[in-house]
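User: Last request for today: this protein with iron/sulfur cluster, please.
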Amino acid sequence: MFKKCTFKGGVHPPHNKNRTEKLPIEIFPAPEKVIIPLSQHIGAPAKPVVKRGDYVTVGQMIGEASGFISVPIHSSVSGKILSVAPFPHPLGKQVMAVEIENDGKDEKAAYKSSENPWREIAPGELIQRIQSAGIVGMGGASFPAHVKLSPPSNKPVDTLIINGAECEPYLTADHRLMLERTEDLLIGVLILKKILNAKRCYIGIEENKPYAISAVKTAIKKNHYDKIKLVILRAKYPQGGEKQLIDAITGRNVPSGGLPMDCGCVVQNVGTTIAVRDAIIDGHPLYQRVVTVTGPAVGSPKNLLVRTGTPMKYLLEACQTDMEATKKVIMGGPMMGLAQTHTDVPVIKSTSGILAYNKTTPGIREYPCINCGRCIQACPINLVPSRLAKFVERKKIDEAVEWNLMDCIECGSCTFICPSKINLVHFIKLGKVHIQAKRAAAASKKQ
Ligand code: SF4
Ligand code: SF4
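Assistant: Here's the final one, the structure of the complex with iron/sulfur cluster:
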């Protein structure tokens, strides 16, 4: 019997995964035109290396990394560059992007598979190839993978954790990858393990994915990958948060303001791990990903393998979404996803899901706080969300900082559990914006 690991706090939103969890990944045809943002990651945007009129192939670099915390961007189709200009981005701002007319030939760039078996490639070279392939965290955070894999010498990492929790309701992209590409996932894990020289290596999967648990367990046994340990996690949100996953599996705590490497851990998502395998073994850069398209307004939900730059509206149409009745579209899951103002925005490397809600979703009325303390019990970071929200509302930002507002992981558990329907996480995000603006102003004064 496996012990089920978990963390303190958290909530139990309905899983809502039943409509897509058994649907195999389908390849979504590349659209006639893609709009590929040059910023699809945390860090400096890529610099364009193509111009209007150029011809590009699938997988060709169209934007180069502009620093260590940056990754290149690759074309997802072959065809002619129509423009390099600002376009709406799913994060709600205008971002430089490359607009490409797909010629339908799907001509591939001259990337090639590795001549050497990956076990013979030095860790530094593996990291460099991962950066060149433009790989970022595909669970939503989009942090460049090579940065996580390059901890400084004063922060030794001994533990690699693969995040197969997929705790956000509705999403099943990682679930399907664990079922359909199990062996590739394990190869990716071994590559990451070699890079980090990690002594311990875990794959954490929530208990509500028994088929994925069984597939991974069988593949580990069959291949005698004894050093990879499968950990079954209790199904609880936000189990897939890095800090919660580390706590549940190792009992270690990431310090306030710190990173997983501060407690000897590196966490990579399932999709990212498979992308690492594809980059190292096949030489493939990251220009497509699995997206779950679902929600109450979607008539025929699916798990789709989608080229980056594909406008979200094409996916919603293909999944028979009642666009007239659609009230809200979210990129990602319902707890931490981002509401979209329109559906022309493209799929990017971190688009794990697209959810559409119809007009029957009831409006939410807010009531005064009744000091029930449920938000405090639910907070996985041990914050006091009700108090933080009040500080921000009353513009007492310094007090909010003293009460560790910046440690909030914006999981939304407090908002979910609040019986008064107070949007606590909204106030906390607002507080972070004020704090960042204040710090930026102070820094510019010093210069
Ligand atoms: S305060 Fe932040 S970390 Fe705590 S429950 Fe709310 S959103 Fe999550
Ligand atoms: S859960 Fe809502 S009502 Fe209860 S203490 Fe927190 S903010 Fe107040």
